[in-house]
Amino acid sequence: MPKHGAVVGDVEIVSLSDGHLEFETGSFFPNVPAEAWSDYRNGLTPEGRILMNVGSFVVRSDEQTVLIDTGLGTGDHGLEHSSSGKLIKDIASVGITTGEIDLVVLTHLHLDHIGWNLIRDDDVYRPTFSNAKYYVPKADWDLFTSPAGLRRFTTIKHQVAPLEPLGIMEFIEGRQQITETLSAWPTPGHTPGHTSFLVSSAGENAVILGDAAHVPAQAHHVEWSPAPDRDPALSHASRRELFDWAERENAVVASGHFPKPGFGRFELADGRRVWRPM
Ligand SMILES: [Zn+2]
Questions:
Q1: How far is the CA of 270 from the centre of ligand 1 (A)?
Q2: In the predicted model, what is the mean pLDDT of the chain?
Q3: How far is the CA of 268 from the centre of ligand 1 (A)?
Q4: What separation, in Å, do the N-terminal and C-terminal C-alpha atoms of the chain show?
Q5: How close is the Cα of 84 to the center of ligand 1, in Å?
Q6: Which pLDDT tens digit goes with each residue over 82-97?
Q7: For the whole model, what pTM was predicted?
Q8: Cβ contacts of residue 249 below 8 Å, gap of 6+?
Q9: Which domains does the chain show, CATH number per domain?
Q10: How far lies 16's CA from each of 39, 72, 211, in Å?
Q11: What is the CA(142)–ligand 1 centre distance, in A?
Q12: pLDDT of residue 81
């Protein structure tokens, strides 16, 4: 097993990264007072900024190889203090080819989760993962590919909209089974269609958070909803429900934005829920 992996029953989950992002605490979490970060310095850069991995996960069983989220991709995203474009190399480094990916599953349609969906040659698009079906949350599709959505989120035009004419897209709507061991758990709020994913195999569970949380401090502070959350109250409710479940089940938790490789568990310590990296 690659070193950045976790085993859940008969399923292997591998952590991959496309790069990183950095944000000022006060701009990413405008409602969190600066002093509240004093307990959570280890998730920050020496300058006190939030250091965010841009993570993806491969979920691999005997039957299928699934890639969850596709990073920022290549090109300039206009994001300060960021790096990107490493995902394909990272996949190769764990011995998986892009052609082996059977399904690409997207937690939501923000630009740091869709960047490697498609390759564009002149104006012809082809899937980066040439044999894959792409699963897209329906409520996000409706929002982001609306005329207003396409104007505001330019990446959608190149990385999401062409999936439909290519005939390689399926929608995710509500709780549904994606493969025998992978199922969708809607966690709306960050975006309307935001979806986390459960991996269940041989009595063991894992959850892939997506952007249900961005920093480990939210294990305790489930009420911290960041600026990009479209509906902060709903994202808070989704986060609380998911985290309560993961803590109760002692599930493996996989986060693409927590420090690499992003595997851990939620545990109680002195009456607070804490993030215990694996
Ligand atoms: Zn994100």
A1: 30
A2: 95
A3: 26
A4: 15
A5: 13
A6: 889 999 999 999 999 9
A7: 0.97
A8: 205
A9: 5-277 (3.60.15.10)
A10: 28, 13, 16
A11: 19
A12: 82
The Å distance, Cα 38 to ligand 1 centre, comes to 24
Q: What is the reported pLDDT for 3?
A: 65
d(CA 211, ligand 1 centre) in Å = 5
Strands 252-254 and 263-269: antiparallel
Residue 2 pLDDT level (bands cut at 50, 70, 90): low
